């Protein structure tokens, strides 16, 4: 079985707020997964992002470190990634992996500009 795009935690997005803490169910400015630590609602992002209204809670329910969560302070969407080919909306990294290791990878190279994944690298 070949590795698909889900191995990169790729998520399709639909606007410029997608993948930022300010639109995540785990908290907008204090993250329940990070033990209630402050996060940046505008540019904070992590590998556990789930879009939606904040889950009502009285206390944090996990105590992960920013490193464990993959927390970064940047707008981690495809439109801001050095791997994106904007005009055709294809991920150059996914294309390179498919070509270099076809026996391992079968990655969908088409991405949404507001999508994101854990391989995002700022331009």
Characterization of this structure:
With 123 residues, the protein is mostly loops. It contains two helices and six strands; from the N terminus they run βββαβββα. The longest helix is centred in the last third of the chain and has 9 residues. It starts with 29 loop residues before the first strand and ends in a 23-residue tail after the last helix.
Q: Main traits of this protein?
A:
2 helices, 123 residues, little secondary structure
- Overall form: elongated
From the N-terminal CA to the C-terminal CA, the straight-line distance is: 32 Å
Strand content: 5-15%
Helix content: 10-25%
Short description:
This protein is low in regular secondary structure. It has two helices and six strands.
Layout of secondary structure:
Elements: E1 30-31, E2 37-38, E3 44-45, H1 66-69, E4 72-73, E5 84-85, E6 90-91, H2 92-100
Antiparallel strand pairs: 1-2, 3-4, 5-6
């Amino acid at each position: 079985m070949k590795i698909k795009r889900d191995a990169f935690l790729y998520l399709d997005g639909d606007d410029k707020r997608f993948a930022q803490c300010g639109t995540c169910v785990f908290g907008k400015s204090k993250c329940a997964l990070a033990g209630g630590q402050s996060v940046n609602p505008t540019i904070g992002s992590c590998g556990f992002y789930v879009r939606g209204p904040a889950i009502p809670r009285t206390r944090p329910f996990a105590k992960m470190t920013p490193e464990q969560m993959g927390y970064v302070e940047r707008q981690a969407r495809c439109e801001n990634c050095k791997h994106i080919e904007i005009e055709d909306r294809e991920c150059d990294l996914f294309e390179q992996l498919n070509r270099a290791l076809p026996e391992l990878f079968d990655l969908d190279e088409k991405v949404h500009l507001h999508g994101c994944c854990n391989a995002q690298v700022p331009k």
